[in-house]
Amino acid sequence: MSDRRRADPGAESSDPRPKPSPPPSVQAGGKARGASGAVSADDGAAGRATRGRDQDAPSRTPRKRRRRRRRRGSLPDRAIVFVGPMAAGKTSLGKRVARELGVPFVDTDAVIVREHGPITDYFTAHGEEEFRRVEAEVIAAELAVPGTRIVALGGGAVLTESTRLLLAGHPVVLLMTTQEAVLRTANLARRPLLRNDPAAWGRILEERRPLYEAVADVTYRTDRATKDQLARRIAQWARSYRKRLPEAGETKEQR
User: Fold this and answer.
1) Apex 9 CA angle, 8 and 11, nearest 5
2) Cβ atoms of 90 and 84 closer than 8 Å
3) How far, in Å, CA of 120 to CA of 91, rounded?
4) Which of 22, 115, 134, 222 has the highest count of CB atoms within 10 angstroms of its CB?
5) In which residue ranges of the chain is pLDDT below 70?
6) pLDDT for res 244
7) CB distance 156 to 66 below 8 Å
8) Is 150 exposed, middle or buried (0-12, 13-18, 19+ CB in 10 A)?
9) What's the CA gap between 238 and 70, in Å, rounded?
10) How far apart are CA 211 and CA 132, in angstroms?
11) Taken in order 236, 163, 161, 204, is the CA torsion positive or negative?
12) For the purposes of burial, counting CB atoms within 10 Å of the CB of 219, is it exposed (0-12), middle (13-18) or buried (19 or more)?
């Protein structure tokens, strides 16, 4: 019988005894384990390094994205100036843009009123030439303040050459509108040049238009969109604004 058992090739396969378990070295995904079942120091270090790389990879990407977003969204490090004709919305829109950007707002006409009294009274008592001199001094002082903020100028501020030269070094937003819109919404009693002749608005605009366009970097029509829409558009433009500083005496027309 022993001879037959040795000659029968299937004799061993029919043995009902269970086969021994595979050695510990091939268990748990092939990681070698000692008698206690702990992963070896080398394998553990390799696993920790692999897990560290896997955990670090996604965290580096968001940081890079955040840095790129901050670079794209950086604001100019100086005043963003609003110019335009009387009653175009420089003050009301300037305040909204300042809130949108989280920066201060300054209205140079309000500074003049605080320091010299109502503009209409000062205009009447001292004349336009003296008023423009005072206006230019106030504007120069406000534009010299470092940091980002919105500064709204009076409608005639661009008439002064020294002011135009200063504006060459700042982002300038030109707000335009129509005479019909102004006469419908403006308080003419506060506008010394319009109080006795409301139709003068159109004539004054045509005289000043070349000066506005010479100092402006971008133009928005305030009669074609809501103030909230315009505030968002201007804020987006300000965040993407890039320009070089002018040479001494250089104007925007000469660039």
Assistant:
1) 70
2) yes
3) 18
4) 222
5) 1-73, 186-193, 195, 243-255
6) 53
7) no
8) buried
9) 13
10) 15
11) positive
12) middle
Q: What are the tens digits of pLDDT across the range 161-199?
A: 999 999 999 999 999 999 888 877 766 666 666 767 777
Q: What tens digit of pLDDT does each residue of 14-49 get?
A: 455 555 555 544 444 444 444 444 444 444 444 444
158: phi then psi, degrees, rounded to nearest 5: -75, -5
Q: Say whether 109 counts as a known binding-site residue.
A: yes
What type of residue sits at position 89?
A: G
191 is in an annotated binding site: yes
* pLDDT for residue 218: 97
Residue 102 is predicted with a pLDDT of 97
Q: Is 160 annotated as a binding residue?
A: no
Q: Which amino acid is at 222?
A: T
What contacts 24+ positions apart, CB below 8 Å, involve 159-163? 159/132, 159/208, 159/211, 160/132, 160/135, 160/136, 162/136, 163/135, 163/136, 163/139
99 annotated ligand binder: no
Check whether 4 is labelled as a binding-site residue. Answer: no
Q: Are 174 and 218 in contact (CB under 8 A)?
A: yes
Q: Is 154 annotated as a binding residue?
A: no
90 assigned binding-site residue: yes
Query: Strand 105-107 vs strand 172-176: parallel, antiparallel, or unpaired?
Result: unpaired
